[in-house]
Each structure stands twice: as structure tokens, then as C-alpha cells.
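User: C-alpha cells for this complex, please. No commentary.
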Amino acid sequence: MKIILIGPPGAGKGTQAAAVKSRFPVDHISTGDILRENVRAGTPLGVEAKKFMDSGSLVPDALIIEMMRERLAENPAGGFMLDGFPRTVAQAEALDELMKEMSMSLDAAILLETSDETVVKRLGGRRVCSSCGAIFHITENPTSVDGVCDVCAGPVIRRGDDREEVIRRRLSAYHKDTAPLVEYYEKSGLLRRVDANGPFDAVKSHLESAGF
Ligand code: AP5
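Assistant:
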């Protein structure tokens, strides 16, 4: 299975990817996670990307496309679920080229449809484990012990780009640069729309009904 997850920041891409992965053994590739690892490790890519991530803007296409070319080459035959890529039409075109080079084709582009109001509520309360990346929410999915990850007991923190002014900028970037992908994948017949405004189990069951 080769699928991509599209949706605004906070739509639940990372959360639902973990659920899909428990049903299908695919490689979950999150561009946000790869970029944050590079930032932590202080690589040249991380240093460059950090400026854009901190401000809520998209990292330039050329950097992302090169990063994904390398990442996809690590798994030439297996299935994958791309989370956060592509995020512009230029990235989608580059992915099509990469897939062609690798003699592969995409099975679906899943759009997690979420209102801006839902996004602001979800991201305002999100907490993530700085060790294993597990995702929590202060009211919807809190940790058992405050500040401690239920999965690995690592420290649970608020992401630097989950401040309200940055969330607003990330949402504008989504509407301007990523929303055109909906038409792109509609035209190719790959788009699957999933209502992602409801609680976790409702979204999970919409995804299951759609075959994911
Ligand atoms: P990235 O890390 O990809 O951030 P994002 O797309 O903004 O998505 P998020 O991780 O914020 O949200 P999500 O949809 O995964 O939601 P989650 O499951 O955590 O990217 C960060 C930055 O990197 C970008 O701003 C950009 O600068 C750069 N970047 C990355 N990829 C790029 C690319 N391709 N091109 C250019 N730049 C790129 O859920 C959110 C919260 O809601 C959690 O607290 C969760 O517990 C809760 N929640 C989830 N589902 C539900 C539900 N159904 N009900 C109630 N609460 C829920």
C-alpha cells in the first residue's frame, strides 16, 4: 500500500497514521519528524529548515524533495504512508517523477478534512514526547502522569510551533500552498475525503470504512 495523508496542521495525520500502521505494516514517513530530527542533530538541513519551521512557513521545496528522494530510496519495494509530504503542487509533481523512476504508483491520497476551529483547539492542547514522538492532548488524550510519556516514560513537551500566532501562520500556509493538492489528486482520481472533525474513534472508523 502506498498512500499519502493530506490535511491541515492538527488534522490528526500523525495520530491516525499510528492507527493505520497498526492495521497495515507500512513505513510511516513523516517529513515533520525527519526535519525535527535534523534540527535536533544540528545537520545543515536542520539548521536551514529551523528558520522556516519556527515561523510557521513551509521549508523550500528543493530541500524537501531532496530529503524525500533519499528517504524513499531506503525503502524501494515496500509500502509507505507519507505524512506531511507532498505539501505543494511542486512537491506532488516531484513525487510523481520519483514514483515513475522507482516503477511505483500511489494507491490513494487521503484528505483529513478539518475546520480551522478544530485545528486551533487540537494544536493548542497538543503535547508530544520528545523521546519517542508519541502524541497526546491535554484533554482529549492526556498522559497518565503529567509530563511523562505513557509509551516510553520520556519527557512530554509542547512543540515550539504550537503557539497560537505560529498555528495561524501554518494554517495560512496550508490554505495557500497545500489546499491546491486537493484538486491535483481529485483530477488523478486518487483523492479520498475523510471527515476528521470528530473524536479519534470516529475518524479511525471513517478511515477503516474507506479501506485504510
Ligand atoms: P509537521 O510536523 O508535518 O506539522 P503539521 O502538518 O503542521 O501537522 P502536525 O504534526 O502539526 O499535525 P497532525 O495533523 O499530525 O496532528 P496530530 O496527529 O499531531 O510539520 C512541521 C513543519 O515542518 C511545517 O510547519 C513546515 O515548516 C515543515 N514541513 C514539514 N513537511 C513539509 C513539507 N512537505 N514541505 C515544506 N515544509 C514542511 O494531532 C494534533 C493534536 O490533536 C494532538 O494533540 C492529538 O492528540 C489531537 N487529536 C488528533 N486527532 C484528534 C481527534 N480526532 N479528536 C481530538 N483530538 C485529536
